[in-house]
Design brief:
The chain is of the alpha/beta class and 259 residues long. It folds into 2 domains: 194 residues, Alpha-Beta Complex (2-enoyl-CoA Hydratase, Chain A, domain 1); 47 residues, Lyase 2-enoyl-coa Hydratase, Chain  A, domain 2 (Orthogonal Bundle), CATH 1.10.12.10. It has 12 helices and 10 strands. The chain has a 6-stranded mixed beta sheet with strand order 1-2-3-5-7-10, sandwiched between helices. Strands 4-6-8-9 form a 4-stranded mixed beta sheet.
Length: 259
Amino acid sequence: MQYEFITCESAYQSHIALVRLNRPKELNALNLQLMQELKHALQTLDNNEDVRCIIITGNEKAFAAGADIKQMESRTAIDMLIIDQFETWDQIRKTKKPVIAAVSGFCLGGGCELAMTCDMIIASESAKFGQPEIKIGIMPGAGGTQRLTRAVGKALAMEMVLTGKFISAEEAWQAGLVNRVVPEEVYLEEAVKLANEVAQQSPVAIRLAKESVLKAFDSGLQEGLYFERKNFYMCFASEDQKEGMNAFVEKRKPNFKGK
């Protein structure tokens, strides 16, 4: 598939794929076509055995400055219901392989929600996070009120959602929204480094572990513990588990094959 609003590069020698949002004049505003392209790219990469970790990024000025307001301005509630644009977001969330957001510049509204849909976030020192939808008479609709609250707590999430306040990369790190903050010139390099660490592990164990961590967001403790235990047992059905433990005993580096 030919993409208009994203680019997709794969570094198969290190099992890492890089997806770049590519609407620079619009600060990578997320229109419907871009989101469909992103959904297609992630599904394709998810089915590619050579890919073990995916990075989503924008550019130094903006990860994504929000949704494309021009596409929504004149629509009615019924229009929005029929379009069902959030179905695309649900599909992105279902990506089985780990997804890292490499964020620089503006990460606002739908852009912030997209970053939070990813599994980890590396932020440059210039990154600014926010949910400013309230300033145009609406509210977050792609997980902003839910994931942000789970990440940073009720008080800060309420302030950001009700006032449209932006927070800096450092504030985002202190609140637990991002993994780390690095200089702008190395933020993508740092994301690749993290992706490479993930890609070196057993793909089977990584998939099961990711599912289990995400389950903690969607369930109570006891249900989450049961799910974790089931996935732990499943690891022992894989060749990677045998290889990993044998390599440990033999004091060598494991050769994981995702089987």
